Amino acid sequence: MSIVAVNQNLELNTTNDDQAGPSQRGHVNVCLLCGCSIARRQSDKILRDNPTELQQSMINIIKTKIEPRQVTPSDKVCHPCWLRTKRETLRINRIDELRIPDEMPQIEENVIHDHEPPQNLHVDETARPNIIENITLPDYRRAANTGNHCVFTDCTNTGTLHSISDELRAIILRSHKYYLPKLARVCGDHLSVNSWDSLYEAENSITTFNAEQIQHVFSFVNAYNPTLDFKNIDEMDERIFEYWVGFSKEKYNSLLEEIPRISEIKGGKLGLVSLLIKIRTGDSDERIATLVQKPRRSLETLMDRVREVLVQDFVPRNLGIGHLSREQLITHNLMIPNGLYGHENNMIVICDGTYIYINKSSNYMFQKDSYSLHKFRNLLKPFLIVATDGYIIDCFGPYKATTSDAEIMTGLFNNDTSPLRLYFRENDAFILDRGFRDSIRLLEDCGYRTYMPDSLLEGEHQLTTTQANRSRCITLCRWVVEVVNGHLKRDYKILRQEYFHRSLPHMMENFQIAAALLNKFGARLRNNDYANEILNIIRERINFENNLANMIEENNMNRRSANFKVSQLTEKMF
Questions:
Q1: Is residue 25 pLDDT above 50, yes or no?
Q2: Are residues 311 and 351 in the same domain?
Q3: Per the structure, how many domains does the chain have?
């Protein structure tokens, strides 16, 4: 008879007026722990008068095992259960004794016998330190159990801290081997970005876990469901949806309203969610099919149809030189670039290429064209034109790894009837890096103003003060395109991992969709609070003479050799 059946009989036989005791049905006397009959077996009473410390510890363990049932004076346990409980108590006591400092007397283990409980074993519990045992897990790490700050390192956003649901904890633990404790909080900015994988290697990650945290892990892992019901999106947890898709349900619904053709496709909503998950997480089609509970081949066909609709309907509305006018683009000029390079309401754009790494190819010609001697890896190059606030005007490509930025720019502006030549006008400003030096003459012949950091000529070893100041002004504005590249690869993991050759035909389409989503739902860069002060300082100091450098050059102090003398260290020198 199991203990569950015994407890049920005890509860049925107990009334409000009677105390709980041995069952009056079946066996009159049964063991409280194992449920075996103790009518003809040796038994031990649980509650005793003036119990020893060991016996009281045994009673507490028995009470813990039979919760929520209460122990009554008539309850007994069989002698084997009593001995097992005793050994468990002694084992716990030995573990506690190992935590006692060296100055405390050790308890001899040979005075403890299984048949006779020690009567003179008294240890002052108040003398034992309250130590929580921690264990180290080599493959798992955790965040600090505090709600005072965000779990991400160096995050100073304390105004919008959100709690973390157990479903999101389970996903992060499964995907990144990182545990978020109960009190851990995350800010709204980091909740929407896809940078959870950076937590494991963060400086504030912890490798030790206590018993309460491990128990918490088991509590939410057992309830975790690895599949998600994206057919009922309204019933999903907002945090889980934002983790997989990258933005809130409200933005997702607005995306559906903007592209009604997706709703007309059978299973189009599921295909859109699956495609967004693939672009954001970079997971394989097989894993996404398991997640959304859809056959892989059917899901791939559905995602291809949705991708085609997005490229035709969504991308042209949020990406490309045709989706916004020159007047709208001028409004994206920030204060510092406009103060340095603005001229009669002209456009200011920043151009740069980025990299998408791919696998090594067995095709010799493709392998030769896709191998970069600069990165020593196989890659393809998309090309970006962005505004000074981070808004992506257009993207082109992919280009071969052996194609330089100057060659890409020349190909885009070399034809008089090219769309970019018709879109940009005279005196528009292009902020570039040194990789565009071979295309500067072409852009200037088109009437555009180009700004590129100065380079050292043959025989020169250092830029002049004026050249260095001009280069600093360009760097002060050009960093925006690097931020945009970082946001694309931060929010959409498929762009920062190695592309498989099987999915290369869709690489540029996925890149355009990601750029359009960043334009649609991403945050723009804002003007610095001290932009006016920065501009005033630049205007005041850009033409300052470097008197120290002039003095060193006039006196040839940089060409003098210093004669050092070896001195002996003596006590008189101190």
A1: no
A2: no
A3: 4
